[in-house]
Write a structure and sequence with these properties.
By secondary structure, the protein is an alpha+beta fold. It contains 8 helices and 9 strands. It is globular and about 65 Å long.
C-alpha cells in the first residue's frame, strides 16, 4: 500500500526509517513519553540496538511520518521475528501533531504489515496483533478500541530508591548464586526461561534453536550487556531461577534496571524470586546505581 492508501493528511508522507533518522525518532518517542508519563522512554543506544537486531528489517518493518518540511513527527515498527503469531506494533506520535489522523495511519500500516505473517504460517493458525499505550493517553486507547482491539493486560514500570545498602537476601536452603559470567550456559538459561514463562500470558513454545538465536541476537545488540549482572540461582547443577539486570535503565543512565526475573516451576513458593530481586538491588547499589 502507498502512503495515500493509509489516509495521511495533506502535506504528510510515509516512508521506512533509516539509521540517520535515529535522533529524530528518539525525539518523537521521548517527547510523547514526557507528556504522558513525565519521563523519556528511550535513549539512542537502545533504539539503535533495536534497529540493528537481525530480526528487524528497517525497510520492511518500520515507518516514519514526515511533515511537509521533512520533519519526522511519528514513528512505528512491527516486531514479529520472535513469535510470528503475535506481531507487536509500537508507535508514537509527536504531541504537537496529535489529532490529525497520524496515529490512525500508523495503525493502518501496522495492520497491513501484520497480515504478512500469514505467508509464513499454517492456514489454521490464529494471529493476534498486539500493541500498547500508556493509561494516560486516552485518545490512543480509543483509537485502538475503535479498530476492534480489546484491553487485555496491564504492565507496570516500577522503581525503588535506597538511602542505605539493602540487606542481604535470605536464600532458600540449597541455593547458591552465581553470574552468567561465571556460568555462561546459554542453553540452560534459555530452557529455564521457557520453563519460568510457560504460564505467562501469550506464551508460545518455540524450538530451542530459535530461542538460542534470539538470546544471542539480544546479547549482541545490547551495548550495555554485562554478564556479571545476570544473576543465576543454582541448586547444585540445576538453574532454579535468574534475575537479568542492566547497569542502566532505558530512560535513565543513572538507574540500574531489572530486566527479567524468573523462577522455574519446581522452585516456586520458596522465596527464591524475592531473594534474587533483593540480591540484584544490593549488587546494583554497590555499583552506584
Amino acid at each position: 500500500m502507498t502512503a495515500n492508501e493509509f489516509s495521511l493528511p495533506d502535506g504528510f508522507s510515509l516512508r521506512p526509517a533509516e539509521m540517520a533518522d535515529a535522533m529524530a525518532v528518539i525525539s518523537v518517542i521521548n517527547t510523547a513519553g514526557l507528556k504522558y508519563t513525565g519521563s523519556p522512554e528511550y535513549d539512542q543506544e537502545t533504539l539503535l540496538s533495536h534497529w540493528q537486531n537481525p530480526k528487524l528489517d528497517l525497510a520492511y518493518s518500520t515507518r516514519v511520518i514526515c511533515a511537509a518540511d521533512g520533519r519526522i513527527v511519528a514513528y512505528a515498527d512491527i516486531s514479529d521475528g520472535i513469535v510470528p503469531v503475535q506481531p507487536y506494533l509500537f508507535g508514537r506520535v509527536h504531541p504537537d501533531y496529535e489529532n490529525r489522523g497520524l496515529g490512525s495511519a500508523l495503525l493502518d500500516w501496522g495492520e497491513q504489515r501484520a497480515r504478512d505473517v500469514f505467508t509464513r504460517l499454517p492456514e489454521d493458525v490464529q494471529v493476534s496483533l498486539l500493541t500498547s499505550t500508556v493509561d494516560s493517553n486516552q485518545a490512543a486507547q480509543e483509537l485502538m478500541c475503535s479498530r476492534g482491539m480489546t484491553h487485555t493486560h496491564d504492565f507496570w514500570n516500577m522503581n525503588v530508591s535506597f538511602t542505605a545498602e539493602p540487606a542481604p537476601p535470605d536464600w532458600p536452603p540449597g541455593i547458591t548464586v552465581t553470574t552468567f559470567a561465571q556460568h555462561p550456559d546459554l542453553t540452560a538459561l534459555a530452557e529455564a526461561h521457557d520453563n519460568a514463562f510457560q504460564d505467562h500470558w501469550g506464551y508460545v513454545r518455540q524450538p530451542l534453536a530459535d530461542r538460542l538465536t534470539r538470546w544471542q541476537d539480544n546479547i549482541a545488540s545490547d551495548p550495555t550487556h554485562d554478564p556479571t549482572l545476570w544473576f543465576l540461582a543454582m541448586d547444585e547443577d540445576t538453574l532454579a531461577g535468574y534475575c537479568l539486570c542492566r547497569s542502566r535503565a532505558y530512560d535513565d543512565a543513572e538507574m540500574g534496571y531489572v530486566k527479567i526475573l524468573g523462577v522455574t516451576r519446581p522452585y516456586r513458593q520458596r522465596g527464591l524470586g524475592l531473594a534474587l530481586l533483593q540480591h540484584s538491588f544490593r549488587q546494583l547499589y554497590q555499583r552506584g546505581q
